[in-house]
Every structure is written in structure tokens, then in C-alpha cells.
Amino acid sequence: MDESNPTSGNRPGSTGYQAPSKNIADTAMAVDNLKTLATAIHTAGLVDALAGKGPFTLFAPSDEAFRNLPRGAQDALFKNARKLKAILEYHLIAGHILARDLKPGEIVTRQGTTLIAAVSSSAVQVNDAHVEQADLVATNGVVHVIDAVMLPKNWQLLAAAA
Questions:
Q1: Which CATH number covers residue 29?
Q2: 28: in domain
Q3: Which range marks the domain in which residue 115 is found?
Q4: Of 11, 26, 41, 128, which is least surrounded by CB within 10 A?
Q5: Predicted model pTM
Q6: End-to-end CA distance of the chain
Q7: Do the domain assignments include residue 15?
Q8: 93-113, pLDDT tens digit by residue?
Q9: What are the backbone dihedrals phi and psi of residue 69, each rounded to the nearest 5 degrees, phi first?
């Protein structure tokens, strides 16, 4: 798990601390491997919500996570803004939760259902997604980059017919 973000390792009182200057939406848009997520946030109409007061914790699927969806599923999802919004809200929880503060067990998402966190001394996992980059601190919360697009129980992404 990579925790090398400059705003996460430098705490107040240490030399070089720099307070975050971007909200969660802007943070996601600024991270190189979250370009697909940034597009999804716009498509789903969640920019204002993720720029809001918070605090929020976003488990942010990487570009690779979106590429690993079944063939055609990403395109179909981006054509259904309502479903895309629900899936993105499944990646969002209330509170400013750094990786070291995440507790194992169920977490209620903004979408309304739960995900399961598993925490060890060397890794953090939510459902079947592993946190690849933790603690990207924003003005209204924190972003953790994950390696999969998570779906609530009993949801499926169907590939579009070719």
C-alpha cells in the first residue's frame, strides 16, 4: 500500500506540512490514474456533492480498475447516469477516515448499503478491492485509490451487446 502522498505523510508540527488545497472532486481529477473516475464523477452529476462540506472518504477505483470491467460494461455504465451515480456512491462513506483509522467490519455507504473492510498491518481491503494508494487528503475528506470497481451485493454490470 503506497502512502507516499505529500499531504498524508506530513503532519502539522513537522517541517514541510502543507494543508490540502483541493476538495475530493478536484483531488480525484488531479490524480493521474483516476482520469476515468473523474469522468464518471462528472457524468453521474456528483461534482458538487464531492466538492461539498463533507467530510467524506472515497474509495476511488483506478483507471486500471475500470479497464478490468467486463468488455462493454464501462460504456454501458457511462450511458446510465443513474446507475453510475449509485455505484460511485457505493464507494463513498461519511467521515474523514485515514487508512490507519479504518476498522474492520461493515461500513454504510452513501448509496445506502454496506461494504466490508478488512484491515491488517500491511494492507487495507474493502470488499474485494485492495487499497493501492492511501490517504490522499482533501479539504473535505480523504481519497484511497483501489484496484477494483465495487458493486453492492446482488448487483451486476452487464456488458453491452456488440
A1: 2.30.180.10
A2: yes
A3: 20-146
A4: 11
A5: 0.85
A6: 37
A7: no
A8: 999 999 999 999 999 999 999
A9: -65, 155
